[in-house]
Amino acid sequence: MNKLMKIFTLDSIIIPVVAVIFGLIVGAVIMLAGGYDPILAYSSLFTSVFGDSYGFGETIREITPLIMTGLAVAFAFRAGLFNIGAEGQFLIGMTAASIIGIKITGLPALIHAPLAIIAGGLCGGLWAGIVGYLKAKRGVNEVIVSIMLNWTALYFSNYIVRTFLLQEGQQKSVDIQPTASISLQGLSMLMDNARMHMGTLLAVLAAVFFYIYMWKSKQGYELRAVGHNPNAAEYAGMNVKGNIVKAMFISGVFAGLGGAFQVLGVFHYQDIFTGSPGIGFDGIAVALIGMNHPFGTIMGAALFGTLTSGSSGMSFGAGVPPEIIRIVIGSIIFFIAAQGIVRWVLKPLYLKRKKEKVL
Amino acid sequence: MDAANPVVELKQITKRFSGIVANDSISLKLHKGEIHALLGENGAGKSTLMNILFGLYQPDEGSIEIKGKPVSIDNPNKAIELGIGMVHQHFKLVQPFTVTENIILGMEPKKLGFHLDYKTATAKIKSLSDQYGLKVDPNSKVSEISVGMQQRVEILKTLYRGADILIFDEPTAVLTPQEITDLMSIMRRLVDEGKSIILITHKLKEIMHISDAVTIIRRGKVVDTLKTSETNPNTLAEKMVGRNVSFKIDKKAATPGEAILEVRDLMLKNKEGVSVLDGLSLDVRAGEILGVAGVDGNGQSELIEALTGLRKVDSGSVTMKGLDLTNRTPRFVSEQGVSHIPEDRHKHGLVLDFSMSENMVLETYYKAPFNKGGFLNQQEIDKQAKKLIEAFDVRTPSIETKARSLSGGNQQKAIIAREIDKKPELLIAAQPTRGLDVGAIEFVQQQLISQRDQGKAVILISFELDEIMNVADRIVVIYEGRIVGEVLPEQTNDQELGLMMSGSTSGGKQHE
Fold first, then answer.
1. Does a structural domain hold residue A213?
2. What is the CA radius of gyration of chain A?
3. Which residue of chain A has the CA closest to B366?
4. How far is CA B171 from the centre of its chain?
5. Is residue A50 part of a domain?
6. Per-residue pLDDT tens for B428-454?
7. Burial of B135 by CB count in 10 Å (0-12 exposed, 13-18 middle, 19+ buried)?
8. From CA B160, how far away is CA B131, in angstroms rounded?
9. Which of A152, B6, B12, B423 could be B25's S-S partner, Cβ–Cβ 3.0 to 4.6 Å?
10. Predicted ipTM of the assembly
11. Coiled-coil ranges per the record (chain B) (predicted)?
12. Which structural domain, as residue segments, surrounds residue A306?
């Protein structure tokens, strides 16, 4: 417990919390300027999320993939890489899970579902691995490659769905085999048919894995050393290039798993997307809010998911356009990125506390 | 002007940085035609004070008077207007530009509003250069002239802007002994022509040689201001450090054994196809410190990288006790008993954002007992860190503290602790005392000698001749990627070494 307290040092928890409050205030000011009632808006947002079990369940559904893409971005970041390609890795994970979930038949659920999940994670990892490989061996900037691969992933996934998995006359694939589903029927029934699935639990476990791997294992030590100072890592005899590829691979696995959960647990089919779904991009914001810590990422995803999921309730209850919530999220990210502002506002508080300690 | 009218007077300057007092009511008087040395250890507050004078920082308390008038210098342009010029330690020159282009940069003389008037500028620079005996060719490209010449371009830059108060920030750090001598005479000439100079340095020899007065700063406070003629190096060192320092290092004569490391004909071309190692050969024996002297940029870094596996050579061989180490990985080399105190401790030696305990196992984390089945054994790592920190007196608040927050000296101690604890056969120390203060330098050099006394082979690569002369048992000189001579410290002098370092092979013979 003491250790857990150490992770969440005062600073690293206070700043995001204050940034969230500031973000909400900015949103409120904008609502006021637009002639809306911010208190009604936030309260209807709150009610739509926590007011009934369906809203709550759907919020959790919203949060789950954000945890995964957030972990993907945070993991790469800890190894000194900016994985802006979680979006593409997420799509590839979806597609791989769809292929396994639809095309393979006759397997028991106990094997089929895990197989589809593993395929999703693996393919997401390999997709990101391309980025890592090009960066390590050819020195190509990971941001550029991963942005390009996002588009490649989008059209490649659409091609796969259209050519191999299409449901006649529709812009989506046929449904996956029931054996590949990871939906929790019983829980969904209890939650008024909110789409609950195993992926949520696995996402939390993924965060725990992230923590243990990164801070307790030998390989994580290497990844962090490479991330902080590749020159020193090389001096110390670490394989810098190998570690870059490995970091990108694991990062991609997180995103790919997120995509697999979405197909296997939520929709049970895959759309032909006209544009990127954006969950991978949101993962960047989530990781930022979570300060690239796995447990912070869970909280960041919870916040992001709650706001997003509640925005429709807010628009229903207070007539506020749901886009306002994107402004709130944007402001929160701004205040987290510009920590100086938060520290400056908090300064008098800190000083006061110090004085009290002296007394 | 006489002593009553100083050209610069700093009065009770105080500057605080978030709770730390960098300058604590410092007063300083610079007279016309005087070279005034500012002496202090790293972090004593010299740079802060000069940055205040040059307008980069504002003092919290105190005032500045230039030629008797109180002024407030709120930016460097104001300082230049007042006739203050700064010759920075790290030159601020555009390499592909000519000397003239560099000097006029930011205040280009124009004809007809937009046409650059190079002719007038070149003529003015030429006459300034002649007046002060700088011998700079205004038309040569900066990338093609020597470091010493580049420094003169920096001096010209300040003169061109009409400076008559010049601040030299550690000007000799990058120069060869000959270039230092030349710089000294240039500085003399400048003051003879009526300029005034503030010289920031921690080299006592230079102060004794060139300055008229010296102000010693310790921990942000003025300890004393003395006339150079009325003091001596020992007094100065004592005042600077705050305790007695010995310059001469106590060491017994070396008792070298068999050769541990044999380097033969190393060849290496850089990306541009230029030979950076050009048939370099050397031997290091057990129980001796081999000093590698040379001016920066003559292949020292490449030699170290080749020896430690950080860079692959094109041809040649590195053999340690009969085992071929040529082009092996850094880890392989390290496991054969090679320790390396890197040249740049921030770049290679430490992961600054890691805790001290994480840094202490940077090269051994994968071995038992620190690695237990793929997981870090934090208890053992902490124990190791505590042991090393205690044994080498690394001043750190705790082992959880990030390496970044330690002072340079303590960071270096930590690296040395880690490297020596590996019990190496061969210790490669590259610039191990760079940027350290007198006390820390003493410690580091003692450690190298004690390794030698335990029968280890030590390579000391340094740009500081004094260090090489004091510490090494045998000296080789590296020039343009080759060893151009070998001498014994007791049979040579700065002059001879300096000549060898600048490429004239009049010294000892080894290379044809």
1. yes
2. 21
3. A218
4. 10
5. no
6. 999 998 777 777 788 889 999 999 999
7. exposed
8. 12
9. B12
10. 0.83
11. none
12. 61-339
Please list every residue in chain A whose beta carbon sits closer than 8 Å to the beta carbon of residue B348.
231-232, 234-235
Q: With CA atoms as reference, report the closest residue to A31 among A303, A309, A307, A314.
A: A314
Q: Strand locations in B294-447, DSSP E?
A: 315-320, 323-324, 338-341, 371-372, 375-376, 426-430
Closest CA to B393 of B417, B422, B420, B418: B417
A46 within a domain of the structure (yes/no): no
Q: State which residues of chain B have pLDDT below 70.
A: 1-4, 18-19, 42-43, 112-113, 244-248, 505-512
Chain B nearest-CA distance from A209, in A, is 13
Please state the domain count of chain A.
1
Which residues have a Cβ under 8 Å from the Cβ of B280 and sit 6 or more positions away? Answer: B263, B265, B266, B299, B303, B316, B478, B481, B482, B483
Distance CA B351, CA B346 (A): 7
Cα separation, A41 vs A321, whole angstroms: 10
Q: Which residues of A touch B (CB under 8 A)?
A: 216-219, 221-222, 224-225, 228-229, 231-238
- Measured from the Cβ of residue B97, the count of other Cβ atoms closer than 10 Å reads 15
Q: Is A235 in contact with B354 (Cβ distance < 8 A)?
A: no
CA distances from A297 to A1, A56, A94 (A): 20, 19, 21
Searching chain B, which residue's CA lies closest to the CA of residue A212? Answer: B375
Question: pLDDT tens for residues B35-92?
Answer: 999 988 766 788 889 989 999 889 999 999 999 899 999 888 899 999 999 998 778 8
The DSSP secondary-structure symbol of B203 reads -
Interchain CB distance below 8 Å, B351 and A231: no
Which domains can be identified in chain B, with CATH numbers?
6-241 (3.40.50.300), 257-337+424-504 (3.40.50.300), 346-423 (no CATH)
Omega prior to B177 cis, within 30 of 0: no
Q: What are phi and psi of B45, to 5 degrees?
A: 115, 10
The C-alpha atoms of residue B380 and residue B364 are separated, in whole angstroms, by: 12
Judge whether A279 lies within some domain: yes
Q: For residue A87, what are the CA distances in angstroms to A253, A290, A292, B447?
A: 12, 18, 17, 54
Tens-digit pLDDT profile for residues A143-199: 999 999 999 999 999 999 999 999 988 999 999 999 999 999 999 988 888 999 999
How far from chain centre, in Å, is Cα A286?
Answer: 6
8 Å CB contact between B422 and B365:
no
Q: Which residues contact B152 (CB under 8 A, 6 or more apart)?
A: B129, B134, B135, B136, B186
Residue B26 three-state SS: strand
Quick check: A153 and A255 in contact, CB under 8 A?
no
Instruction: Tell me if residue A336 falls in helix, strand or coil.
Output: helix
**What is the full DSSP assignment across B433-480?**
TTT--HHHHHHHHHHHHHHHHTT-EEEEEES-HHHHHHH-SEEEEEET
Helices A240-261 and A86-103 cross at an angle (nearest 10°) of 60
Edge-to-edge order in the sheet of strand B275-285:
B275-285, B259-269, B315-320, B323-324
What CATH code is carried by the domain that includes residue A91? Answer: 1.10.3470
